[in-house]
Amino acid sequence: MIRVEGHRIRRVFGAEGDFTVVPDKDIGTAYIKPAAEKQAFSVFVADDAGRTWKLLLSVSDGPSDTIVIKGGGESGNGRSWRDMARNQAIKRVLLALDSSDETDMASRTTNEVVPLWNEAMFVLVKVVDGPLRGEKYMLTNTSDKPMVIDERELYRRGVVAVSVERQQLDPAETTAVYVITEGG
């Protein structure tokens, strides 16, 4: 069971087929049942205050656990406002990376092959510079088998956000990958 302290869960979502959700609308909680073959999976939980959390859950052989997300409330420290401003900045960089139009952010196009995996071609195609640096890559499955992309494999020191447009690629298919880092 998952619940948000002091709030009701509005939505639980993630990769299709990783888990099923049974909501308890009366008390605003949700029950998660993982797919049998998954050892770990990501779940996004949104509450009625508009906040969203990403949880990385692992499956264990034992009794079920209750996960309580402590929302932190609106304390005087302004943390939730800083988090919202940071999330807005991340969204601005992501939109600038995806836009073909001129933006107010310094950006440049490139065509640099970056070694990633043997069965993939990973090409850096656009960079947005600023307090947050955005990188847009095109990832192509060069193998003869379907490829599943796990965003966690793309994290490195300084990365604050990773987004993969399509997480499953058939042979020769391509998807956009966005990586946002701090500290230029």
TrEMBL record:
Segments forming domain TraK N-terminal: 2-69
Database matches in Pfam families: TraK_C, TraK_N
Source organism of this protein record: Tepidiphilus thermophilus
Protein name stated in the entry: TraK protein
Matches recorded under InterPro entries: TraK_C, TraK_N
Domain TraK C-terminal: 128-181
